[in-house]
């Protein structure tokens, strides 16, 4: 159980999370805490369809519209 908890914490702290919305990929290559804050802020600004997903999933969803993962990682939280 302890190993599973450490693994989960490690995943959440890794810069491997993205935020998608009805407009597309809003940000990528962030920690889970960073994307959680971004989702909260974007929701307050009236954006809809916000989801936190892994960068791998975001890449698969946006294959037709490639995401510059380096550029989106600079999105302020």
Tags for this model:
77 residues, alpha+beta, three-stranded antiparallel β-sheet, 4 helices, 21% strand, flat
What integer is the average pLDDT?
A: 83
Series of H and E elements: HEEHEHH
First-last Cα distance: 32 Å
Give the % helix.
Answer: 40-55%
Strand order of the largest sheet: 2-1-3
Low-pLDDT parts are none
* Number of separate helices: 4
Instruction: Please indicate the count of domains.
Output: 1
Our Rg estimate from Cα atoms comes to 13 Å
Which secondary-structure class do the elements indicate? Answer: alpha+beta
Question: What share of the residues does DSSP label as strand, in percent?
Answer: 15-25%
Give the overall shape: flat
Using DSSP, what is the number of strands? 3
Assembly context of the chains: single chain
Largest sheet: 3 strands, antiparallel
